[in-house]
Amino acid sequence: MDQESHQSRTVQQELQAIGSSLTHDKLFREVFQWLGLAKAFLRLVLSGPILAKLDLDRLTIEPKDFLNVIFKETRADMIYRVPIVGREESLCIYVLLEHKSFDDFFAIFQADQYAGQINQKEYRQAKDEKRLKADFRLSPVLVIIFHHGETAFTGPTDVVGVYDDCGGILADYLPRRRAILFDLSTLTEIPDDPEVPELYAVLRIMQVIFSLDLSTKVREVLERLKPYSAIPKYRRLIRFLWFYFVSYAKKQSDQEVTAVTDAVTKIIGEKEMSTILEQLKAEGVAEGEARGTVLTALRVRFKKVPKDIEKAVRAMVDLTALQSLAVHAETCQSLEEFEKVLG
User: What is the pLDDT of residue 72?
Assistant: First the structure.
């Protein structure tokens, strides 16, 4: 097999491993585990006094199954473990990064549960090691809600906001955990760190993904990465951002999608991008049919489908998930049951 054929096969295998589309969550979980990007993002979001306490050079990323003991398939999007400057290795600050591509009122409640489980695991470990003494303290967990969507985030950023405080009478006795809100939809300018160009590229693409003139803005971002296109990490990032664009290019014409694909081909010199695009288009037709199957089944069985359910189904781009959802649409006992499966 010649080098070009091998490269083509490698790229196709890389994208196939992601699935039939690169969703918001998949992109987020992929790129925010890159250590350089993670550190640059924390420097952007956290305040000076907090950063002064963090030894970012020793930042590590917790395994994906960190919370699986209790939450099973439900887990936080990203958890960073950062040692505290001047403290022993076991003392650290956890940074819990929760990603939302829609305005989720209960995002802080979900993140608070995850944060509690981090400390639960820490507590159990200390208990097993007989370290539970009066001077033992749990590690702080900083929560960052990362939001990008068509509108600004309006949910509470302190978990107390999801509780009924009985007109303020119980306010002092309810749980509190305040998150840092990073809302891409409200940023007018994204800082560009020349030492970590991937951070700007990822944030900008995620910011404009809902735009009508998406193709133009995507090409601008990809051109900024051209000077780094000989570096494998950035070639991979360019392919990922292209796949992300294609996955959400429903409002773009075929000509616009082709123009972005041609730009990628010129930047990284991989001729197979056009072939992969045709494969993705075919899969997109299958996804559209699968969405129609789900909604038709619900209408036949329950007559009327609530707008929020229909919107959620139409937003799905994972063919495997849609096929599974079609089975639930045929077998669920109520719309409420279906909505729970939909998440």
Answer: 46
Which residue type is seen at 296?
A: T
329 with 300: CB under 8 angstroms?
Answer: no
Task: Show Cβ contacts of residue 165 under 8 Å, excluding neighbours closer than 6 positions.
Answer: 171, 174
Alpha carbons 312 and 316: distance in angstroms, whole number: 7
Q: Give the gyration radius of the chain's Cα atoms.
A: 22
Closest by CA position to 22, among listed 323, 221, 319: 319
Instruction: Count CB-CB contacts under 10 A for residue 198.
Output: 20
Distance CA 189, CA 248 (A): 23
**For 126-177, what is each residue's pLDDT tens digit?**
999 999 999 888 999 999 999 999 899 999 999 999 999 999 999 999 999 9
Residue 169 CA to its chain's centroid (Å): 37
Distance CA 14, CA 303 (A): 42
Pairing verdict, β 78-83 and 92-100 = antiparallel
CA neighbours closer than 13 Å in the CB half-sphere of residue 330: 9
Higher pLDDT, 299 or 165: 165
Strand partners, 80: 61, 95
Residue 42, CB-side half-sphere exposure with 13 Å CA sphere: 30
Listed by start position, the domains of the chain span: 18-186, 211-271, 282-342
